[in-house]
Amino acid sequence: MVLTLQIILVIAAILMSVFVLLHKGKGGGLSSLFGGGVQSNLSGSTVVEKNLDRYTIVMVIVWLGCIVGLNLIQAFAG
User: Fold this and answer.
1) Which conformational region is residue 29 in: left (phi greater than 0), alpha (psi within -120 to 50 degrees), or beta?
2) Between 31 and which of 12, 36, 42, 49 could a Cys-Cys bridge form, CB atoms 3.0 to 4.6 Å apart?
3) Residue 73 and residue 77: Cα distance in Å, rounded?
């Protein structure tokens, strides 16, 4: 059980990082340094961006659930 939660935790963390990096830049941060700022001002919120938001939120919930589950197992195991 612990090993399964640890594997899911690592996979969720990697996917969450990838999904966050795939988002378009919204401000004048590092994304505008590479030309992302101009493009984000011209385009609105697309279906792809909304789905990417949903996938990111699902990965955050899975990641947090694994952390809570691992902590509960550790607390009640000993």
Assistant:
1) beta
2) 36
3) 6
